[in-house]
Write a structure and sequence with these properties.
mainly alpha, elongated
Amino acid sequence: MNIGVALALLGAVLAALFAGIGSAIGVGLAGEAAAGVVTEEPSSFSKVLLLQLLPGTQGIYGLLIGFVTLTQIGVMGGSSDISIIKGALYLAACLPMAFVGYKSAISQGKASVASIGLVAKRPDQFGKAMIFPAMVETYAILALLISILAIFGIGGMAV
């Protein structure tokens, strides 16, 4: 394996790893709050479960970036011989999803906790409660888009 492939692999791993860790933390935080609410009001299970699941999307996005990168560099089929420069570019392309995925998942988990508290006190406000953590999702989607565009852009370069 050459250094370029190793750098690109590092990027794929970091995107999946950091976004996954952030999602695990966010979903865990929201799960603790959801369990407390369901203890008092079992009928609210489906509403708080949906709020708990929201921070898990960043882990999915990170996994997607990992798969796309592995496919682009030939690890999942094809030739996996890329230059050090191209490998470094793939690494850089994966970093937005890695770092924004990590931070936004934790922040979304905290917003979900607050929204779960809102649903506990005002079940009729579920629609509004969904908006708060969904706003955080916007930044994860932006990071996903920039990483995808960068990865596919690198794939067409002759470096």
